[in-house]
């Protein structure tokens, strides 16, 4: 009993600490220009919202309590039911706020459109991501390498991910770097982001797709550009070549215990997977 | 005849008990336990009714009744049963996430997926929809001065189709496995290629039956409001609850068919190899997403608008004051209803469409906030210069206003596409929609339940247990859902059966504790019902007006007579009963009573429901002979009914006169109560009126 009480006290004491630890994994701890802009937008909107919600949160308890039945001091006008000034006050300022927020929304939706390339002087890295059950395949078409469940990128370079799915619809999210976009079979979507500093950032599928869903996580590893180049060269020489067996294994519904790397990835693998989904099941097996 | 022809896909393995016997683990035992609860519960209810010899009475007075009041009560009873199940599932899911942090937890991934799928499906289609349909059913005709809805038989058919669909949901616990595709059932995951079992079929047919029932209900309510208002009740004199019911009905009529079509096309894919939403051969799941949310977003307002109506009634009554800004409330209701059809794309900002499209739908989403905010201020100005009485319904209204506004704020965050990209599909979204639906729907329905219960049953609900339950619903909500905002902002995906981040633990523990408090809230609600029934004699309000009410439903006895009004009322204002009490014209006895025609009972409702339920079950398990037989049976029932000419019966004038004189004697015997004693045994339902 005593022990339970003690551990409960510890838990309560540590809760705020644990809370901070959780938030470090999210956009509050942004590690790239897209997520940073999203977080800035978030705080701007939140500040405006204080003025939207504040009056209600203040007025409801004050008015309900002041006009309680037991308070004989308060005014009582049971037939009073309308006043133009109040009416204008509750329609016009909220409409004005929505118009203002609407302008911010329009601009931010275009500025932070996931299809929009990141304006950085360095050359972009192109990655093709394939959502699979229950893993992610990342193809680096220029380097002819591919990885499963690990996405190394050079810090400071724009990254353009093209997405499709080899199975059901999924959604790729890296909270510290960028928001999510769906990956759908037979279709291509796009997500642009960049990591400002080296580090390891958690990525995941957020769209439920079966038993292995909760384990479908991967690390985005942002490396210093020179290290990234070294890593690419090492993969090109040392990683297992991507062969027919590797291709077939992609479509097995399974989680994988540890990331896998491939070299000698053929041209057009991504396009082949996009087309594969459009075929009837019998032909898609081949 | 082979077994497959006779029983389709059914086999011993389909039974949850057999699976638990063959592979006893915590996971299968939980499933078997839930199945056992369903079976034992059903057997116990049947046994109790049989032992007490109540079958005949139930059949005659309830199941075959076309009385809108009884149908309303049956809807609400159904929703409470389903609420209990879906809340138990919620608690189990919270316990799973709180314990499965780099550990196995209590259920496996597949079971967890069934839990979130049934939880969502039940809460929307079989808790919220029956609850609000039941309240509207009960109150609407009384408020507009009518004796019934326009189509009483259709009303019963809607009820029994909904009940059959709910029964199918219960059957899925015992036989087979439910869908793992969530309440929205997105293909291609729910196509046979990825979900070959019966799960998505259970979902499809339960939702299809329910959506057909709701479409019919919407038609019925809208027609009733258009055609059956009493003399003098112009559109701008309708109580606000009638306004919101009208808008909800219109939304049902236009949005429910989109769902029926979506599920029907998915059924064609699954049963006949069509390719509407498959990956291959030209199918496209984006069409499903559009169809589903073209239903799904208006559905949110189908759920919330009636609660807004209830709050309007409750705030006005318990502030002892006329509603502030009636016209602006009505306009805001219409604006919400219209705008609700213009925002569906915000459910999939992340589907890769252009920034222009996302921005337009984002702005439309924020625009809904304006009329919604106006409504909240209207309720605040209603309390302003009033005399506020903190009864249980008003407490729910206050908790709603304070809590709903927070959900509105996070809704604006989600309306920004760039912010939605970050928190879509995370627990932030889960927190947001529970933040809208628990205060905006559940609190409202519970406020309505407490408010109108004395009208329906003739005695008040226990006030103390009502407050206990209220406190638990509010505290439990904050504990259970505020942590989810944090977890969502930290990127925790919704629907995760396992958690790989130890940093999430403290928040998940708090949320788990909150779920237990919410379970306590429901328990307190049941205790309240039990206590209130036991002490009903002390709390009777036969005169019918326990809260000094304003609209017509309070002008009749509690419970009201079958025919509602001995003489159809004439109204000349927005608060007719309130005005009549002040003028001294309330409770006037007519010079003479006339015979009243009421719809005769009909077994068509329960028959169609039973056949529909078995047809759905047969389709799920592909028992083709049974499906054919039941569908033919349904068609035959409808044809046979069309030949029945004698569908009304007359209540003689003498009977009406006797019932009404009894009530007037009760009125004469009752002492008027001031508002200070309205929650005490002194309250007999006759309000003391200060002119």
How would you summarize this macromolecular structure in one to three sentences?
The complex is a heterodimer of chains A (286) and B (691). With 286 residues, chain A is α+β, with helices and mostly antiparallel strands.
Report on the architecture of this protein:
The complex is a heterodimer of chains A (286) and B (691). With 286 residues, chain A is of the alpha+beta class. Chain A has helices at residues 2-23, 33-66, 84-111, 225-238, 244-250, 269-278, 281-284; strands spanning 125-132, 135-140, 145-148, 150-154, 158-165, 170-174, 178-183, 189-194, 199-205, 217-223, 240-241, 260-263. In chain A, the strands form 2 sheets. Chain A has a 7-stranded mixed sheet. Chain A has a 5-stranded mixed sheet with strand order 4-10-9-6-7. In chain A, α2 runs antiparallel to α3 (84-111). Chain A is elongated and about 85 Å long. The mean pLDDT of chain A is 91. Chain B has 691 residues and is an all-alpha fold. Chain B has one domain (54-540): Cytochrome c oxidase-like, subunit I domain (Cytochrome C Oxidase, Chain A, Up-down Bundle). Helices cover 66% and strands 1% of the residues of chain B. Chain B is built from 21 helices and 2 strands. Chain B has a two-stranded antiparallel ribbon with strand order 1-2. The radius of gyration of chain B is 25 Å and the shape is globular. The model of chain B has no long low-confidence stretch (mean pLDDT 95).
């Amino acid at each position: 009993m005593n022990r339970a009480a003690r551990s409960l006290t510890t838990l309560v004491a540590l809760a705020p600490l644990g809370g901070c630890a959780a938030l470090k994994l999210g956009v509050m701890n942004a590690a790239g220009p897209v997520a940073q802009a999203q977080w800035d937008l978030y705080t701007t909107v939140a500040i405006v919202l204080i003025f939207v919600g504040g009056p209600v949160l203040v007025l409801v308890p004050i008015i309900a309590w002041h006009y309680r039945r037991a308070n004989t001091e308060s005014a009582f006008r049971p037939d009073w039911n309308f006043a133009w000034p109040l009416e204008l006050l509750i329609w016009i300022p909220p409409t004005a706020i929505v118009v203002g927020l609407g302008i911010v929304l329009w601009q931010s939706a275009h500025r932070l459109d996931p299809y929009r390339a990141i304006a950085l002087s360095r050359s972009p890295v192109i990655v093709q991501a394939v959502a699979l059950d229950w893993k992610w395949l990342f193809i680096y078409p220029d380097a002819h390498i591919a990885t499963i469940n690990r996405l190394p990128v050079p810090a400071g370079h724009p990254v353009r991910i093209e997405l499709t799915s080899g199975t059901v619809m999924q959604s790729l999210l890296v909270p510290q770097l960028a928001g999510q976009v769906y990956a759908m079979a037979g279709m291509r979507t796009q997500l642009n982001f960049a990591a400002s500093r080296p580090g390891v950032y958690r990525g995941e599928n957020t769209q439920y797709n079966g038993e292995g869903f909760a384990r479908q996580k991967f690390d985005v590893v942002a490396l210093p550009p020179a290290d990234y180049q070294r890593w690419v060269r090492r993969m090109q020489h040392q990683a297992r070549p991507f062969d027919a067996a590797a291709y077939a294994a992609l479509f097995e519904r399974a989680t994988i215990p540890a990331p896998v790397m491939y070299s000698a990835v053929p041209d057009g693998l991504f396009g082949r997977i996009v087309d594969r989904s459009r075929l009837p099941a019998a032909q898609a097996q081949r | 005849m082979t077994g497959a022809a006779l029983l389709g896909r059914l086999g011993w393995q389909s039974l949850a008990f057999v699976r638990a016997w063959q592979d006893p683990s915590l996971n299968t035992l939980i499933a078997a336990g839930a199945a056992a609860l369903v079976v034992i519960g059903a057997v116990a209810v049947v046994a109790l009714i049989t032992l007490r010899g109540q079958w005949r009475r139930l059949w005659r007075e309830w199941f075959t009744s076309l009385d809108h009041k009884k149908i309303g009560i049956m809807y609400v009873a159904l929703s409470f049963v389903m609420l209990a199940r879906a809340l138990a599932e919620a608690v189990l899911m919270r316990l799973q996430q709180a314990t499965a942090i780099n550990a196995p937890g209590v259920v496996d991934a597949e079971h967890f997926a069934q839990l979130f799928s049934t939880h969502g499906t039940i809460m929307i289609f079989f808790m919220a929809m029956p609850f609000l349909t039941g309240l509207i059913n009960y109150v609407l005709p009384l408020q507009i001065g009518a004796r019934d809805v326009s189509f009483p038989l259709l009303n019963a058919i809607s009820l029994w189709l909904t009940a059959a669909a709910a029964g199918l949901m219960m059957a899925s616990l015992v036989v087979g496995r439910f869908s793992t595709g969530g309440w929205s059932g997105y293909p291609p995951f729910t196509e046979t290629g990825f979900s070959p079992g019966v799960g998505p079929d259970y979902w499809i047919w339960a939702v299809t039956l329910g959506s057909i029932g709701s479409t019919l209900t919407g038609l019925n309510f809208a027609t009733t409001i258009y055609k059956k208002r009493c003399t003098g009740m112009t559109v701008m004199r309708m109580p606000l609850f009638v306004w919101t019911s009208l808008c909800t009905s219109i939304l049902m009529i236009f949005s429910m068919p989109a769902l029926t079509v979506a599920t029907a096309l998915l059924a064609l894919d699954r049963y006949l190899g069509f390719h509407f939403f498959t990956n291959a051969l030209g199918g496209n799941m984006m069409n499903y997403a559009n169809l589903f949310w073209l239903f799904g977003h208006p559905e949110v307002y189908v759920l919330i608008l009636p609660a807004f109506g209830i709050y309007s009634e409750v705030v006005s009554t318990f502030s002892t004051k006329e509603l502030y800004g009636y016209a602006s409330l009505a306009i805001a209701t219409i604006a919400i209803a219209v705008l609700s059809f213009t925002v569906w794309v915000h459910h999939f900002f992340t589907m890769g469409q252009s920034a222009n499209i996302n921005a337009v739908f984002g702005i439309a989403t924020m625009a809904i906030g304006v009329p919604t905010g106006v409504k909240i201020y209207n309720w605040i100005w209603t309390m302003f210069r009033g005399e506020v009485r903190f009864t249980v319904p008003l407490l729910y209204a206050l908790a709603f206003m304070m809590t709903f506004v927070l959900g509105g704020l996070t809704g604006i965050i989600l309306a920004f596409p760039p912010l939605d990209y970050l928190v879509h599909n995370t627990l932030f979204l889960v927190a947001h929609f529970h933040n809208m639906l628990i205060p905006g729907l559940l609190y409202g329905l519970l406020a309505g339940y407490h408010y109108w219960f004395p009208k329906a049953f003739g005695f008040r609900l226990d006030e103390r247990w009502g407050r206990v339950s209220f406190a638990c619903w509010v505290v439990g909500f904050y504990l259970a859902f505020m942590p989810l905002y944090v977890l969502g902002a930290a990127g925790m995906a919704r629907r995760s059966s396992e958690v790989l981040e130890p940093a999430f633990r403290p928040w998940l523990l708090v949320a788990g504790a909150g779920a237990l408090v919410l379970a306590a809230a429901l328990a307190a609600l049941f205790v309240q019902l039990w206590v209130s029934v036991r002490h009903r004699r002390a709390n009777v309000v036969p005169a019918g007006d326990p809260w000094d009410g304003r609209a017509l439903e309070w002008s009749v006895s509690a419970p009201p007579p079958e025919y509602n009004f001995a003489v159809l009322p004439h109204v000349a204002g927005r608060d007719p009963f309130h005005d009549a009490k002040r003028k001294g014209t309330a409770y006037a006895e007519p010079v003479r009573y006339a015979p009243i025609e009421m719809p005769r009972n009909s077994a068509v409702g329960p028959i169609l429901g039973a056949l529909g339920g078995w047809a759905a079950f047969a389709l799920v398990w592909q028992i083709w002979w049974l499906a054919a037989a039941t569908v033919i049976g349904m068609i035959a029932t409808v044809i046979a009914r069309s030949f029945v000419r004698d569908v009304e019966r007359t209540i003689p004038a003498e009977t009406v006169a006797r019932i009404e004189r009894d009530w007037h004697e009760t009125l004469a015997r009752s002492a008027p109560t001031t508002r200070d004693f309205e929650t005490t045994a002194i309250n007999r339902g006759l309000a003391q009126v200060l002119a």
